[in-house]
Design brief:
With about 350 residues, this protein is α/β, with parallel strands linked by helices. It is built from 11 helices and 14 strands. It has helices at about 35-50, 55-60, 130-145, 145-170, 180-215, 235-240, 240-250, 270, 275-295, 315-325, 335-340; strands at about 1-10, 15-20, 25-30, 65-75, 80-90, 95, 100, 115, 220-225, 260-265, 265-270, 300-305, 330-335, 350. It holds the Pfam family SMC_N.
Length: about 350
């Protein structure tokens, strides 16, 4: 699939903008703070309903304006789709495909699939477990509508349970209702754990090869799923933890506390890896993601690369650029030197200057 064009109105620092893209590599270059990332954000937001940087709608609407619009034209299997997004400062956003409003974000995933890659992704190994869970969830949610629903339910249940644990402190009579939340938490939690486990198995089949090649055959990378408690033990653990949860007023175990371990040649690189090792493993993770999305949707996703090239050394740049030649790619950068030195083929170049 590929994005044919985008139109923006009052989006971040853009009054009004219309861009037509190439099916291959599109480069957006310009100085800092000109609006390069904003363009990628508009595409990702319109394709997933979420900002890659977690921004709220009211932050996205141009300063001094009340609403913003994005229109994106997408081509998938020779069929054209028009996606309209309407963002308002204090109301929920509206999304329509070919003029028909949609109720759930997941309806977009049959039309658009995107992979966003930013410099922060290179810190995923070094950062806390929350980032690694987010990686798992972002992937699974795009690929599996049931997972997306289960995860939303699970998060809601844990929030409600935590609220109850706090309320119970002043109203001990509420204790009876805890059973219902525990039961539901176990039901949804087990499903999430099972899917994460399968996803990591699939990931390992792919990442080992990529990482081996990326490191010139010197590193064996293995991803290990570390559930905070295995699915079959969730019920027992939740019930055993109950007294402690009541004391601490928080749900201590469950998929919301899961992690991913990354091992290079048998060593846990979250703790013992060098910075370069951690970043290379993160790159392998991202390249595997592209591969898995491709395989699952039986089509190519659009790749959004925000300022990543400048963060990589020359051999990793080459590897990345070589891996993406068959995908529509939107790349932001401050200069074109990296492309020139790699003799990398560019299809279209946009210079971004102060919101135009
Ligand atoms: P860099 O190279 O530093 O990453 P960039 O070109 O990617 O820069 P963007 O992140 O796209 O820059 O931001 C461009 C400008 O948009 C910033 O100067 C920012 O202040 C401005 N901006 C952000 N949100 C809004 C908004 N809601 N309304 C108007 N301008 C905004
Ligand atoms: Mg930027």
């Amino acid at each position: 699939m590929y994005i044919e064009s985008v139109q923006l109105k009052n989006f971040r620092n853009y009054d009004s903008l219309e861009l037509t893209f190439d099916k291959g590599t599109n480069i957006f270059y310009g100085n800092n703070a000109q609006g390069k990332t904003n363009i990628l954000e508009s595409l990702y937001l319109c394709g997933t309903t979420k900002s890659h940087r977690g921004s709220k709608d009211k932050e996205i609407v141009k300063f001094g304006e009340e609403e913003a619009h994005i229109r994106m034209m997408v081509n998938r299997n020779q069929i054209n789709y028009k996606i309209d997004m309407h963002l308002r400062k204090n109301k929920a956003k509206g999304v329509a495909i070919n003029g028909l409003p949609i109720k759930k974000a997941s309806e977009l995933f049959g039309v658009v699939n995107m992979v966003f890659f930013s410099p922060e992704d290179l810190n995923i190994i070094k950062n806390g477990p929350g980032e690694r869970r987010r990686f798992l969830d972002m992937e699974l949610c795009q690929l599996d509508k049931i997972y997306l629903k289960d995860l939303a339910s699970y998060n809601h249940i844990v929030n409600q349970r935590n609220k109850l644990l706090k309320d119970m402190y002043v109203q001990p009579g509420l204790k009876g209702t805890l059973d219902i939340w525990d039961m539901q938490m176990v039901e949804y939690g087990r499903r999430i754990i099972e899917k994460r486990k399968r996803f990591v198995e699939e990931l390992n089949e792919i990442i080992q090869n990529i990482h081996f090649n990326l490191t010139g055959g010197t590193e064996n990378l293995r991803v290990i799923y570390e559930p905070s408690c295995p699915g079959q033990e969730l019920e027992k653990t939740v019930s055993e933890n109950r007294e402690r949860d009541m004391r601490m007023k928080i749900t201590s175990a469950g998929p919301h506390r899961d992690d991913l371990c990354m091992e290079v040649n048998g060593i846990d690189i979250r703790r013992y890896g060098s910075q370069g090792q951690q970043r290379t493993a993160a790159l392998s993770l991202k390249l595997s993601e592209i591969y898995i999305v491709k395989r699952t949707i039986k089509d190519t996703p659009v790749l959004l690369l925000d300022d990543v090239l400048s963060e990589l050394d020359s051999s990793r740049q080459t590897y990345l650029l070589d891996s993406i030649h068959d995908i529509q790619t939107m790349i932001t950068c401050t200069g074109l030197d990296d492309f020139i030195s790699h003799r990398f083929h560019i299809n279209k170049i946009f210079q971004v200057v102060n919101g135009s």
